[in-house]
TrEMBL record:
<protein>
    <submittedName>
        <fullName>Uncharacterized protein</fullName>
    </submittedName>
</protein>
């Protein structure tokens, strides 16, 4: 069981060479359905467990390693259950212990409002980048295309270190229009920071499926060049902007209430983006209340 503290990546940017290589791989992913197929298929073959099946309500997708499972994922799932609205949730675990697998299976059986499915891997892809945290942050975008293909349902990718405050997918459905992708754009930021990957919804439209497939294949290929910084946001930014420029993708702004770092009372999800926020009084109090209620029930 690996419960070691997460590695902090000190250099928070890609080198010029690395960025050039990443952008080249993204352009290749845009060129056709078979681009980077081998890299993506190699990832797919590492998966264990069960994906969700059947159409219907949107599916919340999150991912974590062993540490984040015990520290955050269980709280996140319990918070969704506590809200009480029916939700479909898929959790991917990176290199979990048998104890964690047993716990998530038992948790799945105990939840009534949450229809939980889960997959896991044995850490093969986590060893590709320079730091495994790069993979942990990106893996949900590798899983998303598989869920879209299997269910033809909307997939809402969220950070696992969150706490549900309101029914999540009903809040999403209330604002869904004719977009293919809904994401948090930050036009005032530079380069890859123009998107925040904390909350991103992909619709099962033809364009949504193309976007998800391109993103998954691009990330799978980028991981193999041993990047030293996060790859999900740069891939999202480049693919969204390229598809929008071609008129191939309709996007809409995701409200920050689906990944609220300021913990507003009327937000759908509180997300603790940094360890300072994770250890804040507001987040720790909410986390303790949720877990205490379940452990005392």
């Amino acid at each position: 069981m690996d419960l070691s503290p997460p590695i902090v990546i000190k250099k928070k940017r890609h080198s010029l060479l690395s960025r050039w290589r990443i952008e080249r791989l993204v352009k290749m992913a845009m060129s056709g359905k078979r681009a980077h197929f081998e890299s993506y298929d190699a990832f797919r073959r590492t998966l264990r467990g069960d994906l969700p099946t059947g159409g219907g309500a949107p599916i919340i997708l999150a991912a974590c390693n062993e540490l984040y499972y015990w520290e955050f994922a269980r709280t996140f799932l319990r918070s969704i259950e506590a809200v009480g609205a029916p939700e479909r949730v898929h959790l991917h675990l990176c290199e979990p212990s048998q104890k964690a697998l047993g716990d998530v299976e038992a948790l799945s059986a105990s939840l009534s409002a949450v229809d939980l499915t889960f997959t896991w891997d044995q850490g093969e892809s986590a060893r590709l980048p320079a730091y495994p945290t790069i993979y942990y942050a990106a893996v949900r975008f590798l899983i998303a295309p598989l869920i879209l293909e299997a269910t033809r349902s909307t997939v809402l990718c969220l950070d696992v270190d969150g706490i549900a405050r309101l029914p999540i997918t009903p809040a999403l459905s209330a604002i869904t229009g004719d977009e293919d992708v809904r994401l948090i754009k930050r036009p005032g930021e530079k380069s890859v920071r123009r998107v925040l990957a904390s909350a991103l919804a992909i619709q099962p439209t033809d364009a949504g499926l193309r976007f998800a497939g391109r993103l998954g294949r691009a990330i799978a290929a980028i991981l193999k060049i041993r990047p030293r910084y996060h790859v999900d946001q740069i891939a999202i930014v480049r693919i969204v902007e390229a598809m929008e420029a071609r008129g191939e993708l309709r996007t809409a702004q995701m409200p920050h209430s689906f990944a609220d770092h300021e913990f507003a009372a009327d937000s759908a999800v509180w997300t603790a983006k940094s360890w300072q926020r994770k250890n804040s009084e507001a987040f720790m109090s909410a986390k303790g209340a949720i877990n205490g209620a379940f452990e005392n029930s």
